[in-house]
Amino acid sequence: MDLPFTVATLTRRGLLTPGNPVRVAAQLNALRTWGWSLAGELRQAAARDPGRTAVIDEDGVELTYHDLLDRAERMARSMRAGHGVQTGDRIGVLCRNHHGLIETIVAATLLGVDAVLVNTGLSAAQLGTIAEEQQLRLLVHDDEFAERVLGLPAELPRLDERAREELVAGALPGDLRPPEQDGRIIVLTSGTTGTPKGARRRTPKGFGPLVSIIGRIPLHTRTRVMIAAPIFHTWGFAALQVCLALRATIVLHRRFDPAATLAALTANRCDALFAVPVMVQRLMEVPPPDPRPPLKVVAVSGSALPGGLAPKLMDAYGDVLYNLYGSTEVSWASIAGPQDLRQAPTTAGRPPHGTRLEMLDDDGQPVPTGRVGRIFVGNEMLFEGYTSGTSRETRDGLLDTGDLGRLNADGLLFVDGRADDMIVSGGENVFPSEVEDLLAQLPQVREVAVIGVPDPEYGQRLSAFLALHPDETLDPDAVREYVRRYLARFSVPRDVIFVKYLPRNATGKVLTRELRRYFG
User: Fold this and answer.
1) Taking the CB of residue 360, how many other CB atoms lie within 10 A of it?
2) DSSP letter string over 120-158?
3) PANTHER family, from UniProt (predicted)?
């Protein structure tokens, strides 16, 4: 990350604005002492803006940055004194979006403890596997998951919401010093095909990662942001990191509801929304409030952006949409801004400053412009590997995303889907995402998924699952004819199946394993 670009970006976003000299000195000292971990980010924010509202929960709880840090420190001291949690341990965090989740993660980083962010959609059996594989020392969970954690080993201490509050309230006085080693944030992969793997996230070493994001997405200090994406997910956690760095006011709801989200955006005067694409789809199904929320940024990531969504949203709310393509393993690869999405609604955009992006063939050689290749990414936040000890293929400092994509003549990235999603039907390579994007443009279609299934004649074939808007109908033959009109014959789905809704995990990704059950 070059210094001129960093300084220019930080200045443009308000991070180098002069302030109270004592507070600025305390802010810089917090970063020098605690680094750019979540604990360091919260400390610097509390030092510079202690009285600013940090978090607003849906139940009306508001905490200032001073209060949020105080509660996190209290919890850290109590976990250490009451449960023997020490540097190098791992704790599980099974929580939805609320202030307690933030306090728990920060408390872990204050102690140099790894925080395993557990997907709230996991089954009881999957939770047991995660607890064993990650060797959890403690599990902090919301009350709604009390039954789901009953089957965990009796020797694993569990803290529900009341117990967490008791830790905060009953903390003994004392100081916390920077731990000997940084606690890692462990994000679980999406797990759409099985039990998710734990991916160790790097701790930032400076302003570089923040500048890469806000250099492309225009977020400013002291903004008001609603994080609708689950914070246990890479995108929601990234939003939290950015918000603490910017000393933003964060609005949180435990569950996503389109009407409630729009109302909260308006009531809390939010400038920005972090969401996953399916959430934005749901927002567009709800009549916009009057007045409309004062949004300047709608930042989405986590799954492919359906073809017609970008122009639809921007026609309704203005040119405010930013689409980040990345993964748990590579953090970010590219960002598409409003101009990119107006030009090409399905694009993943361009790599931000400090990011390398290459399309490589199976031999590791670059493919020509317009040709499909394996997407490899390089930046300073590539993950450190899975907790199992495995990693992903790397080439010349670039990490394999597991996706296939292509760059057009203007340098825009288009993601064709997972490498293992591509099928070979009758000797032809077929990408389900291309068919999905086409079918999503039908006005009757609410959501669509296309998958490959075994076929005795062609090896594999495409099957399309469509959920329609209320009171809408479509004929399977008409769907096939529509695809045949625009795409090659081998892209026409042999099966057209209508469903009430698509099965999704908590981050909005379609669970293809559930769809394959239709075929036994």
Assistant:
1) 18
2) TT--HHHHHHHHHHTT-SEEEE-GGGTTTTTTS-TTS-E
3) LONG-CHAIN-FATTY-ACID--COA LIGASE, NONRIBOSOMAL PEPTIDE SYNTHASE PES1 (EUROFUNG)-RELATED
